[in-house]
Amino acid sequence: MHTPHTPHTPHWHFVKKRTADPAGGAVYVNDDGTRYRRTGGEALAAEAAYQRRLAELGYPVPRVLDEGTTGDGHVFVVEESLGERSLHDMALESLDGTRTLSDTVVDLAAEVGSRLLRAQAVHAVTADLQALRAWVQEAGWTDNVFAENPDLDTPRVQTALDRAVTQLAGVPLVRGHLDYGLPNVLPVGVIDWQHHGLVPLGYDTALALEIVPFKGGTKGYLASPEQRRRYLEALNKAARATTGQSLSQHLAPFLLVKALFFLALMHPIDPARTDKHLKWQYRRHLFMEVLEQYERTRAVDPARFLTLDDFAARHGAPGHP
Ligand SMILES: Nc1ncnc2c1ncn2[C@@H]1O[C@H](COP(=O)(O)OP(=O)(O)O)[C@@H](O)[C@H]1O
Ligand SMILES: [Mg+2]
Fold this sequence. Notes:
There is one protein chain. The protein is an alpha+beta fold. The protein has two domains: 13-80, Phosphorylase Kinase, domain 1 (2-Layer Sandwich); 87-315, Alpha-Beta Complex (Aminoglycoside 3'-phosphotransferase, Chain: A, domain 2). It contains ten helices and nine strands. β2 and β3 form a beta hairpin. The longest helix has 24 residues, at 274-297. The protein is globular and about 65 Å long. The N and C termini lie far apart (54 Å). Bound molecules: adenosine-5'-diphosphate and magnesium ion (MG). The site of magnesium ion (MG) has 3 residues, from loops.
């Protein structure tokens, strides 16, 4: 698979280590920014195979251009660049002293989200309860979350998760991203399919603006209620056109699983890291907040979340001003 007669050996510039990769993989970019190279283990090979399949099915994803094994036995994958800036980068650049997301970014997000949603809906895989339960476990990282937070492994939480599954019965399961958000969305497509798996239609795309507050208000921008409404309406339209169903009524069960996802891998090993401890406690708080809202009203509004700073102030967290 290695191209035999490359005119010159490309020089790869380190971009970042890959988050949540046990194989210690990293991302690199070539000199002119037209290609990205990832290194990793077996999971990276699976990710590349998944991405190739998505490309065949017409998903807006980077084409895989090269794939092989490095001298020291790691897997490497090269793909085309989808551009220089993610929608997250664009959102940060367009802040004008306020914290409101630019409408241009919202419209781009709606466009790419709708395109992905249509590709997902057209190639739906199944719609059964067993697959939905598997999605809760996989997308919510429940094995990890309950291992790190045994006090949350309760009948109360199980009841809420069962209710979420029941509520989503009949929703088509589609090839999903699991870590969908503005940092992985570019104007022409979606990158970083590390955590792929089957998801109920809408789980990835419908939450793109809803999940911003999970970062604690430290991301620099927030979507207004009107922007969230407009974004969701665009996705509802795409969903209705393909499946006949809207997505809005599924936001709460989606957010319950997402709150688990954001709590995964947060328990710091080093007790001296009070900053990490605070973030872990914050995500525990957000999960409980989502759970309570879901139980009480069947709806979840992330705009009502405490920010990380407010949470720290209320809990007099040590090591935080
Ligand atoms: N195909 C691509 N096109 C454009 N930018 C990319 C591409 N692949 C990676 N990048 C850039 O590299 C960054 C890290 O890659 P990513 O796979 O998202 O890593 P992580 O898993 O750590 O989030 C991205 O946020 C993006 O800026
Ligand atoms: Mg990423």
